[in-house]
Specification:
Number of helices: 12
Structural class: alpha/beta
Low-confidence stretches: 1-10, 14-19
Mean pLDDT: 89
Shape: globular
Distance between the termini: 23 Å
Helix content: 40-55%
Largest sheet: 4 strands, parallel
Length: about 300
């Protein structure tokens, strides 16, 4: 809370001796900040283990009065591909409505970048609104999704050209690149690791992710340097590390990458949490988690 002081008068003495005295002293006390009660909810793939660990803990540690709940939804299969994601639509909103009391939730988010990029934010919003109305909920929480959150984060840091790192297969990686391009974001250098399961992605050590991202940017810089007379070579405005399953949303990891690369670094989980908080009206800034949380 806010610190302040209050003037306290203590009066005492002895009736037997006829002594009476007063002591004046300043005593510090705390003025409590207005209490906020905001609940965010994240809908997770049934295979997700990383966000469930990183997201709620970050919110609890840095945003008093804000609670993040998580709920896994069903889908057919466990590989990260279009067919699996489309099967999730039959279960996604039932998982959301199972969060009770539903009216207490300010923001509900689909916490998967590739799913929300493949299905599309507009389709997700349309289906969510329809499900809420058919279930008798005249008013519903604000809906966000991880792909839209990434776009919002890029807009906030002023980035239209990015270096993109994903753990996906080449097919899924290209689908995300396509969705980014359709939303005005150019991918000027890129790398993908070829995985199609969250369990594999979650096991990638953080230091290997950091090394791979630095190598991707370094190789792109070397290429640009050797062909610097070619006006077609573009340099990125920011680096994006895509997929919430990657264990990279860790204190000072993003800051280290930003310092080494000299550009804003955005991750899926970082953008999703930042966007959820901002649309809920929470504008607290946080150090140690990149330019996005520190300055926007």
């Amino acid at each position: 809370g806010l610190s302040d002081t209050v003037l306290v008068t203590l009066q005492g003495g002895s009736s037997l001796l006829g002594i009476d005295h007063k002591i004046h002293c300043a005593v510090p006390f705390a003025i409590a900040a207005p209490r906020r009660e905001i609940t965010l909810a994240a809908l997770l793939l049934p295979t997700d283990v990383t966000f469930a660990y990183e997201g709620p803990g970050f919110i609890a540690d840095h945003f008093p009065g804000v609670l993040m709940r998580t709920q896994h939804f069903g889908m057919t299969g466990h590989t990260l591909d279009k067919n699996t994601y489309m099967s999730a639509l039959a279960h996604l909103w039932d998982a959301a409505l199972a969060l009770q009391p539903f009216s207490s939730i300010s923001v509900v988010g689909v916490a998967c970048t590739s799913l929300s990029a493949i299905i599309g934010p507009a389709r997700l919003q349309e289906d969510f609104t329809s499900k809420c109305l058919s279930n008798g909920n005249a008013s519903s929480p604000i809906l966000v999704d991880m792909f839209s959150s990434l776009l919002q984060g890029l807009q906030s840091v002023g980035a239209k050209r990015i270096a993109l790192f994903t753990p996906y297969t080449e097919t899924m990686h290209k689908s995300v690149v396509k969705s980014l391009k359709e939303n005005g974001v150019s991918v000027v250098c890129e790398d993908c690791l070829g995985h199609d399961e969250d369990a594999e992605i979650a096991r990638i050590p953080r230091h290997e992710i950091v090394q791979s991202v630095l190598a991707m940017v370094s190789n792109a810089s070397a290429t640009a340097e050797t062909t610097r007379e070619d006006s077609a070579i573009e340099t990125p405005d920011a680096v994006v590390i895509c997929a919430s399953a990657l264990r990279v949303f860790h204190r000072d990891t993003i800051v280290y990458l930003e310092r080494m690369i000299g550009l804003p670094v955005l991750t899926s989980t970082q953008c999703f949490l930042w966007h959820s908080l901002r649309v809920a009206g929470v504008w607290d800034t946080v150090h140690g988690y990149g330019t996005l949380f520190k300055d926007h």
